[in-house]
Design brief:
Elements (H helix, E strand, L loop, with lengths): L1 E3 L1 H5 L5 E8 L9 E2 L3 E9 L4 E14 L6 E16 L18 H4 L5 E2 L4 E3 L1 H11 L15 H25 L7 H15 L1
Parallel strand pairs: 6-7
Antiparallel strand pairs: 1-8, 2-4, 3-5, 4-5, 5-6
This protein binds zinc ion.
The site of zinc ion (ZN) has 10 residues, from helix 4.
């Protein structure tokens, strides 16, 4: 996601470049699991203060369903529009002073938006931040019907069948409620039958 923009910086205001992206995102963020590359189009526009990057990008991330915790693939789409500013003057290589910058001063303090001394514009950090902002707050699996998510129901049934029968039956026995709950006593009878068989 690194672009050498030396040539574009030498061109007049209004000059553009168009890039088609298909970039691996492996290693971009330790907390994000990417299932696909970053794809989309970005346009670089030479402005009076630097380069305006604008585009529509998308990728796919693996996360957990907010209800049933099953792993799901979540498509993430986002728009980029960021002003990058050069640290140095492209013809002379001299560092630019703050007061020479013609853009929004707040952009100057964002290191993610600087074009380095080798005239490399790196999109990685703004892409990383944009992905986090574009992630759904409550990712869910594709279940859209009424009632409980079928994954959740299946998951709970599995838990019931496995360790939880043992766990809850012990707890219930301690509280001597076994006979009061026909559901559990039925399960316990089943288990006792198995043990005695
Ligand atoms: Zn689910």
């Amino acid at each position: 996601m690194q672009f050498n923009v030396a040539q574009l910086l030498k061109e007049p205001i209004g000059a553009t470049r168009l890039y088609e992206l298909n970039e691996s995102l492996t290693g971009l963020d330790a907390e994000l699991k990417f299932l696909g590359p970053l794809v989309g189009q970005v346009q670089f526009l030479r402005t009076n203060s630097g380069i305006l990057v604008a585009g529509q990008l998308s990728t796919v991330i693996q996360t957990g369903c907010n209800r049933c915790a099953e792993p799901i693939a979540v498509p993430v789409r986002f728009a980029l529009e960021e002003n990058f500013h050069p640290l140095t003057e492209v013809f002379s290589g001299r560092y630019l002073r703050r007061d020479e910058y013609e853009g929004d001063e707040a952009d100057l303090d964002d290191v993610a938006l600087s074009i380095d001394e080798q005239h490399i514009l790196n999109l990685a950090e703004v892409v990383r931040q944009a992905i986090w902002l574009a992630l759904p707050m409550y990712p869910g699996c594709s279940w859209e019907g009424a009632g409980e998510c079928p994954n959740l129901v299946r998951h709970l049934q599995e838990l019931d069948r496995m360790e939880n029968v043992e766990f809850y039956s012990e707890a219930l026995r301690r509280e001597q409620k076994v006979e009061k709950d026909p559901r559990w006593s039925a399960l316990l009878r089943l288990r006792d039958d198995e043990q005695n068989a």
